[in-house]
Design a protein that fits this description.
Structural class: alpha+beta
Radius of gyration: 14 Å
Number of strands: 5
Shape: globular
Largest sheet: 5 strands, antiparallel
CATH topology: Alpha-D-Glucose-1,6-Bisphosphate, Chain A, domain 4
CATH architecture: 2-Layer Sandwich
Distance between the termini: 41 Å
Strand content: 25-35%
Helix content: 25-40%
CATH class: Alpha Beta
Number of helices: 3
Number of domains: 1
Order of helices and strands: HHEEEEEH
């Protein structure tokens, strides 16, 4: 059985998400504009649940929505996770003659827990932290 690349990649790193370490680091800057097209984590989950073509699965308590048409993976934090509720959207986007992974986060937890979540996902995906 062949699994989509996104799924295989996610499974390989899902174990890192068991707990977000609380780090005494400088706060990360926040975007002044909305980076995810939904007002809340709940509205994102609801919209994706009704959108056709989305494949849902659960990995280590996280709800994962894979939108292959949009080249996007949505990761919803589970209840009890320090950065709950939160959703991380990773999407492959065309850049000139290549492509890159764009990561956006909608987090309704404390600033410290949300920043820790961003750091974990950025590290896991080899992405730079926002400046």
């Amino acid at each position: 059985m062949t699994l989509p690349i996104a799924y295989r990649y996610f499974c390989g790193v899902a174990g890192m998400l068991a707990a977000v370490p609380v780090m005494s680091q400088s706060p990360l800057p926040e975007s002044e504009q909305r980076t995810i097209e939904y007002d809340s984590v709940a509205s994102a989950a609801q919209a994706l649940a009704t959108k056709g073509g989305i494949e849902w699965r659960e990995e280590n308590g996280w709800a994962i929505a894979v939108d292959e048409e949009a080249f996007a993976i949505w990761s919803f934090s589970p209840p009890g996770y320090p950065a709950y509720p939160a959703v991380v959207k990773r999407q492959v986007v065309a850049r000139g003659e290549g492509s890159s992974i764009e990561m956006n986060v909608l987090c309704e937890a404390s600033k410290q827990d949300c920043d820790a979540l961003v750091r974990v996902f950025a590290d896991m995906n080899g992405l730079p932290l926002p400046e």
